[in-house]
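Homework help board

Subject: predicted structure for assignment chain

Our instructor gave us this sequence and asked us to write out the predicted structure in token form, then describe one feature. I got the tokens but I'm not sure how to describe them. Can anyone check?
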Amino acid sequence: MQRKPTALAINLPRSRQGRPYDGGATKPEGKGRPMNIDRRTFFKGALLGGTAAAAGLAGCAPKAEMADTGGSDARDKERETFEAAAAPIEPASVPENWDEEAEVIVVGSGAAGINAAIRLGQAGYQVLVLERNMELNGNSKHSSVFSNMGGHKAAEERKFAYPEYPYDVDRILEYVMSCQQQTGDPELVRAMLVEGPKCIDWMNEKAGAKWVPMNPSPAGAGMLEWEGMSTPTNGINVNLIPLQLLTEQAQKDGAEVRANSNVDTLVFDGGAVVGVKVTDEEGEKFIHATNCVILCAGGMEVNRAMMAKYSATTLQGIANIATPPNGTGECIRMGQGVGADLAGYDSTGAFDGGVWWRDYDEFDTEMDCHINKDGNQVVRQPWLRINRDGNRVPYIGTSARVYPYVNDASPSSEGLCETAAIEMSQPGGKTYCIFDSKYEQLMLDNYFGQVICRKGKILADDDPFYDRVPEYLRDWHTGFNDMVEAGVIRKCDTIEELEAALGLREGVLVDNVEKWNAACAAGEDYAATYKYPKEWLLALDEPPYYGAIVGGHVFGSKCGLKVNPDMQVISTEGAPIPGLYAAWHTAGGSAGEGNPAGKPLTGVFADLGLAFVGGYMAAGGVMKKDGRTDA
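My token output:
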């Protein structure tokens, strides 16, 4: 069938250096400096960690090697660069003359910034939105569903709430706080649970949104998608057009939205934030905020130096970042520069199956970015999964509930989040997934019944949104084959060769495969917990054999500026900083402390929903301060 032509024109985002995002090809060099190579060259495995990839064992695809870290003088400079990348950004003093003025300055044009701009604009504020990139809407436009726990009109119609209906804020608060081991701020979480459902209904009724349940089941109301933006074979970049429409709505409501306007730092008069210092095409300028500044330009997940400082215990298990390289932490550092405290240490929002392309150098300043669904669906199936010590690594399905454990619950992201935490907590943060040549047909048939982003999809030629999907994401085979070709997924003729190629000590994999095949023949799993059903026990007996090393695949950091329920940024002395608000993911604390994958569901509203709700709440905090209400 011939693909239908379409007039839809979509541009990929650009990184901070102004180069197009290539799905993971632009990698940080092992010396704390960015390096530029095209995606194809990178996937050839030629420049991982700053050195050429070495050939693997006979019968195996090549395996990437680590870089030489250099001499002591070079290392001292790398350390300095690394430490500087995590340091607070000091504010600018009030200039003698301001170049411009706006009532409210919103930093960032993603879901949080645009939602805040719409709500404030409709309430009569003069809003200026500043975006550092040449294109608007940040990571939000590459996202998918608006995850939630219910309470909005569509959920009430279907009698859905998570973890159980009805939507009782007190009970759900207890559940969320239990998931966070009581480390979160209960008043902040309560505010999220109260305001989140209001945000969804407000967006549909007043902001022009079209959020509808993802599927006909009651649980579909917990994963909202923009009506008409997905197809049976296409769940990629489904919010490109919706974010454009929301941006247009913000402009209709009076907001000015500027691209290519980098906010360098806040302007602070010693007691309050009163504006921002900006660099744009015209040069440097100072813009006065007569009311406040709202920071909502993402988190710190791409900034490895910040993650090492504020999420050190989770960092060892993070293989890569699942989004374009936008969450680099500058807004958080600006907040720290005016005395802000942080919340959400050692917490992220993560899914399973981040492929370890390489081991990071100690002073790498950036995390690797490999956009979700780039062929990693294959390694996210219930294969034989072991850790370095030879122990089985549990796997939670997308239709599973952890406790009481069932493997046939309503589809949700619980399995993705729980499995991510499991993988991140293994020795060295690494899980070894082993499968054989049967994978091809099993994936095509979706034999294991996995859904959401674990299901391998092939985009139909006549899909109406064909052009919005980058070529390498149109067929799961593409990314998978690239990883095999690069030696990141090892392909070997024998289990013994695969064991050596994965760097496991002698006997660890061989013994496990023998035990696994015996269990498959007997039809009974030997795992200590979360045993596989009989039909998932498929013997490893058809070479070639494949092995991948996986860890956390992080969508967003959950550590950021500490805020109160009105989204005012809180100082290290415990008081609000006048004139400064923050929305998630620049704000932190939404997932508590020490929550490696953001339980539950990578956070109350996951990532996209969390940003929308954060922008809505920040606008509400400003309006509350000023005694204004929604139009």
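Reply (TA_rk): Your tokens look well-formed. For the description, you could write something like this. Residues 12 and 470 are 8 Å apart (CA to CA). That's the kind of observation they're looking for.
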